[in-house]
Each structure stands twice: as C-alpha cells, then as structure tokens.
Amino acid sequence: MALRVGDEVIVSLAPARARVSEVSPRSITLEWPWGEPDDSSCYRWDGRSCLPWGESTTEWVPYQVEASAGSGPLRAGDTCIVSIPPTRLHVEHYEEYDRPRNLGWAPAPTAGLYVVPAHRLGVFDGGCMLYLGGAEPVQITLAS
Fold first, then answer.
1. I want to staple 143 with a disulfide (CB 3.0 to 4.6 A). Which of 8, 24, 34, 39 is the partner?
2. CB–CB of 20/14 below 8 Å?
3. Is 13's pLDDT higher than 90?
4. In angstroms, rounded to a whole number, what is the distance separating the alpha carbons of residues 142 and 114?
5. Is residue 44 part of a domain?
6. What is the tally of structural domains in the chain?
7. Is residue 1, in this structure, part of any structural domain at all?
8. Is-above-0.85 flag for pTM?
C-alpha cells in the first residue's frame, strides 16, 4: 500500500511476549520479540529496543508495554507484553526502499513510515518511525 503524507491510518501490532532487560524512570529496554541481529550488517543491533516509559514526557511511540497478568511493577528479567493497539495516526513521512534497508536486523524493512498521533496534530513535535515489511508484523489500514 503506497501511503502519502497527510493520510490518516490505523496502525496495530499483535501482542507479543518480551523480556525486560532494563527499567529506568524514563525508559524500558526489552529483548525485542521481532527480528534477529544481522551478523552480515555493518550496524550492530543487540536484539534490544528501548521505549519511553514511566516519567518520560518528551518522547512518544505507539507501542504499549504491559506487565504479564498478576505481576507487579516491571523489573529486569520480567516478562511483559508489547503491542500497538489499533491507533489512529497521521502520516508525516513515507519512504520505500529499493533494496531492504540495512539497519542491523533481519529481516530488513522495505519501507519506513513516520507517524504522529492524529489527535495531537499541530501541537506535537515528536513522532515515531515504524519500519514495514521486515520483522515486525505491523498492520496498517487507511482510516475512513
């Protein structure tokens, strides 16, 4: 699906289990449940991703992290659930890659989508780049 700047989309990503590597007051680092480090890449991804968390007020991502049922506050070593619940977003940038983009993980993505929350359009300075066609099975539909 070719997307254009200005499109409103519904983005989702089915829940997956992830292991918590580190928790700070403003971020949480997870062993990312999608993709594998690409040893042939000149970029060295360690298989982990860091997301805004807790007291973070300056960064935004559509990902949600939830503790597994019955557990208390998340700590290193815990298992959690990471997902993107169906979320209405505004497309700020879209690019397709002639060859999959080398970012250090496999499978490599074939497109990038920079999104911001639709309800905060014009008052929000941050967004998130989602990589498509690679490891994360992100689902996108045009909003009606």
1. 8
2. no
3. yes
4. 15
5. yes
6. 1
7. no
8. yes
* C-alpha to C-alpha distance for 60 and 89, rounded to whole angstroms: 12
Contact criterion met (CB below 8 Å) for 29 and 22: yes
Span 38-60, pLDDT tens digits: 999 999 999 999 999 987 777 88
Residue found under tokens 């949480």: 28
Which of 55, 49, 67, 58 is CA-nearest to residue 25? 55
Per residue in 95-130, pLDDT tens?
999 999 999 999 999 999 999 997 766 655 678 999
Structure-block tokens of residue 110: 């074939």
What is the residue range of 107's domain? 8-142
Are 19 and 78 in contact by the 8 Å Cβ rule? The answer is yes
pLDDT of residue 89: 95
With contact defined as beta carbons under 8 Å apart, do 106 and 130 qualify?
no
Task: Name the residue among 100, 109, 111, 112 with its Cα closest to residue 134.
Answer: 109
Q: Does residue 2 lie in a domain region?
A: no
Sign of torsion over alpha carbons 90, 116, 118, 83: positive
Asked if the structure places residue 65 within a domain, the reply is: yes
Q: Residue 64: phi, psi to the nearest 5?
A: -120, 140
Residue reference for tokens 């879209």? 94
